[in-house]
Amino acid sequence: MATIKIIGDTVVDATREELAVHTAETWIKRIEELFISERSKQIQIGISEVGMDCRKCVARKLALTPRMIDGAWKPFIGTAVHDALERGFGERWPEEYNLERRLFVHEYKDLKLSGSCDMAAIIDDGKTVVVNDWKIVGNPVLAKARKGEIKDQYYIQAMLYGYGYEQLGNEVTHVALSFLPREGELKDAVVVLVRYDKTIAIQALAQLESMIDAAEIVGWDAVIEKQPKASFCFSCKRYEQTDSMTIESMI
């Protein structure tokens, strides 16, 4: 719980003082309620999750496995920054950028893979785009990005966005990951421009198809069991918490 600190020399009635403290505690607690968005409730796999290091979680997503719905402060900061950037770029430079464009990337059997791409900068003849995804990150991730080291999950996500724009008829030359500092100043930001490679997207989608095909033969439980788990995975923890819950607690 957040600390509530009262200062000032004015004498205040104890009841009113207690009411003021309770009021402050209430608005702090309500921030956590804002963490839970429609996106956080989604159990179907999204473009940003296709390249996750934890393949067990990828399989669970494909199997539409229920998980604990929760949120946290750092992702909430990221969501708030994304919203502000979308609004700012949209109001000031609407002709230069496609913002939060919904992309349909791939369909295979029951899988329909789609998602919203943060931004695509329109260049040259209006058909060529540079795709961009914002990442609001801490200093360790920024330091790695500065050396050109990015997670496979981010790399594949960016390529899939590029693939989605290509299917709309755009020419994609580069995809970008813009790492913005959660601490520090904007001058610390790092933009990693990656030359677009369609084959990376195709390979990632083929892996999903292989899981789906295998599940038709042996079932999702067996497919999930065989997938490697990342050394520590927050998403796995959410699934495991759901597994341990009783039916009554989930109603």
Q: Any descriptors?
A:
Lambda Exonuclease, Chain A; 5-stranded mixed sheet; 48% helix; 251 residues; globular; 10 helices; alpha+beta; 21% strand
Structure description:
The protein has 251 residues and is α+β, with helices and mostly antiparallel strands. It has one domain (38-250): Lambda Exonuclease, Chain A. It is built from ten helices and five strands, in the order ααααβββααββαααα. It has helices spanning 14-35, 38-41, 55-62, 73-92, 139-146, 152-167, 198-218, 220-226, 234-243, 247-250, and strands at 97-108, 111-123, 128-137, 171-181, 190-195. The chain has a five-stranded mixed sheet with strand order 1-2-3-4-5, sandwiched between helices.
The main pleated sheet reads as: 5 strands, mixed
Number of helices: 10
Mean pLDDT figure:
90
CATH topology call = Lambda Exonuclease, Chain A
Multimeric organization? single chain
Number of domains: 1
Number of strands: 5
Helical proportion, percent range: 40-55%
CATH architectural grouping: Alpha-Beta Complex
What is the C-level CATH assignment?
Alpha Beta
Report strand order across the widest sheet.
1-2-3-4-5
Structural class: alpha+beta
The helix/strand order is HHHHEEEHHEEHHHH
